[in-house]
Amino acid sequence: MKVLVAVKRVVDYNVKVRVKADNSGVDLANVKMSMNPFCEIGVEEAIRLKEKGIATEVVVVSIGPNAAQEQLRTALALGADRAILVECNDELRSLTVAKLLKAVVDQEQPQLIMLGKQAIDSDNNQTGQMLGALTGYAQGTFASKVEVAGDKVNVTREIDGGLQTVALNLPAIVTTDLRLNEPRYASLPNIMKAKKKPLEIITPDSLGVSTASTVTTLKVEAPATRSAGIKVKSVAELVEKLKNEAKVI
Ligand code: AMP
Description:
Blueprint: E1 2-6, E2 9-11, E3 33-35, H1 37-51, E4 57-64, H2 69-78, E5 82-87, H3 94-108, E6 112-116, H4 127-135, E7 138-149, E8 152-159, E9 162-169, E10 172-176, H5 188-194, E11 199-202, H6 235-244
Parallel strand pairs: 1-4, 1-6, 4-5, 5-11, 6-10, 7-10
Antiparallel strand pairs: 2-3, 7-8, 8-9
The protein binds adenosine monophosphate (AMP).
Adenosine monophosphate (AMP) is lined by residues 6-8, 36, 38-39, 62-64, 92, 94, 97, 115-116, 118-119, 122, 124-128.
């Protein structure tokens, strides 16, 4: 079974993002970039399926600038077999990403497609669902457990108030939640080996997908800075301030 994992290059989760002075977007100059953490969980799950003898090939795909090769190489070092970069410098909306992924799915014909539940830069939480609509494949979102059983995959989903398990006919789309697994670190020998693994670079044009956007970002603003707090001396003082100053009780 071939597994395709979509990985996005995003600002590293440890970085405190800054908004550009002209409010046109987030400043990416000299900022550490990494693989989106939920995508890392997808790569880990695909590799575990390969280690169990269920997956035969793990292909990773990223859509973004040439530098996204770094994240693809990381995925190869973690254990993926092959990578595809759809090189594109435009700011992409989820629907365009989903259309590009659909074109890759048409070419690659994977049985299982893994995506993160959300990208931590745009917080969209929609690419997997859109890909589900475009392909017509079954989808299991927010997965905390994935078990392939014959021609089905059972996905346990984290939903409000509990866990729901659904059986999806393959081919299927799964989006990963935080508790699905704990991704491994790449070892130095594997990082070296990954340099020799195949990484194909293609363009959106070659997939027949236009990347022209129908949405324009008007403004990006940093959240208002919080004023410093104060220390109160007693519970009585706290209650008095909540009542008379903050007026919340
Ligand atoms: P989003 O819907 O933007 O929150 O992203 C959800 C998931 O879609 C990510 O975790 C990735 O698996 C996938 N995805 C989004 N954008 C890209 C991209 N540019 N390249 C590859 N995968 C992507």
